[in-house]
Amino acid sequence: MEIKAVILAAGKGTRMKSETTPKVLHQIMGKTLLGYVLDNVKHISNGEFVIVGHHAQEVEDFVANNYSTAKTVLQSPQLGTGHAVSMVCPVLEDFEGLVLILCGDTPLIRQETLEKFVKFHEFKKSDITVMSTIFDNPTNYGRIIRENDNSLKCIVEEKDATDEQKAVKEVNAGIYCLDWGKVKSAFGQLKSNNAQGEYYLTDIISWGKNNGLNVNAYILPDSDEIYGINSRSNLATATKIMNKRNLEKYMENGVTIVDPDSTWISEDTQIGQDTIIYPATYIEGKNIIGKNCKIGPCAHLRGDVEVLDNVKIGNFVEVKKSVISSNTNVGHLSYIGDSELGSRVNIGAGTITANYDPITKTKSKTILKDDVKIGSNSVLVAPVTVEKGANVGAGSIITKTIPAWALAITRAPLKILENWVAKKLG
Ligand code: UD1
Ligand code: CA
User: Fold this and answer.
1) Would strands 329-332 and 312-315 be described as parallel, antiparallel, or unpaired?
2) Cα-to-centroid distance, 28 and ligand 2 (Å)
3) Which residues surround ligand 2, an ion (CB under 5 A)?
4) Full-prediction pTM beyond 0.90?
5) How far apart are CA 136 and CA 50, in angstroms?
6) For residue 24, which ligand has an atom nearest its CA?
7) What is the distance in A from the centroid of ligand 2 to the CA of 67?
8) How many angstroms separate the CA atoms of 284 and 130, rounded?
9) What is the tens place of the pLDDT at every residue in 16-63?
10) Which of 33, 78, 143, 211 fits as disulfide partner to 107, beta carbons 3.0 to 4.6 Å?
11) pLDDT digits 0-9 by tens, 115-134
12) Which residues are catalytic?
């Protein structure tokens, strides 16, 4: 059956205490919370609707620039999660398929889990399926309330719950699968007579029961996946969970992570076998790292970095948006940005690619061809090319193309004043 996804992302995110960034655009290792959700759902759905409201323009721009199959729908004012879903009713008026609803603040959900969830919905011939999980500390989540025969009764929000209901550890993950044709009329009927005065999407469960629909819960075994981000503290916890998950995956694939406690690697990084990642290394965004590389300690890869095989990126080296070809060394204290480095290049300690012009606010490329050697403490002022095999003397500032196999050096001549110190001392 055709599946449309609806991602709720209009809420203010009050508990994040942010003036500048809407909640769903906060980041985990270089990728937004909303980006994680869209990346995981887009392979399952054919068409995604992101409900925007608070900071709508920023979220609209983010979606338009990064996700071609997704559309945004404005919710203004924001009257609750049920009200948010009702915004797609006009767009999906004639749609006859499944609607998968997710929250933009739940970035740890996996694609495989969503696939299983939809399969469960179909297997059960369900009309409404909600994802739930068991939390030792269920505070702040909606609680799943069941009948004596264990079938679903309703969802009660923390703020509306009795003490007895608060003791329930089964919580609402905020992810739903709806048989749209049967459920769409619910959205005109939700009420806001609750503690927050909002139209709750969670009321869809009791609505379904009252209307004789088949309502089920899919209990997720790995509760980490539906961890919701409501505060900065939640963001830090989610980042740790995500990182641990990523590092396990790399280690399983034959990558050595010397110290998982101090290493951070994003989900969208690929790493080849027998590469060693040394402690205190931070790798964010999308990157590809080859086989047999040595990265760190204390290296920072900022995204869009492609590193081929047998490359060494040493301590206090920052790399951004660059290609580093095989057998090249960037050993110490360097910045490589917007650059293409050939094979067997050697970058001396403290080399900087000066890629940014703060007056024109433009970035330019540095191209170092195969077998180039850059002496320590050099500045390569982009746009600039060093042709094959050329050498740059230590301490040079390179502002124009250096021909193949030449030596370029801008160092002031060395002066030696014999006995200068001795004379001063008298
Ligand atoms: C919600 C659920 C709760 C569940 C939890 C899981 C409701 C009423 N409660 O609570 O049962 O356990 O998620 O994480 O649904 N949003 C809008 N428009 C609005 C309000 C919210 O788009 O008018 C969006 C938010 O941006 C957010 C999502 O909906 O992405 C959830 O809203 P939030 O306020 O975080 O709900 P919770 O209190 O976490
Ligand atoms: Ca939430």
Assistant:
1) parallel
2) 16
3) 105, 228, 230
4) yes
5) 31
6) 1
7) 23
8) 33
9) 999 999 999 999 999 999 999 999 999 999 999 999 999 999 999 999
10) 33
11) 999 999 999 999 999 999 99
12) 332
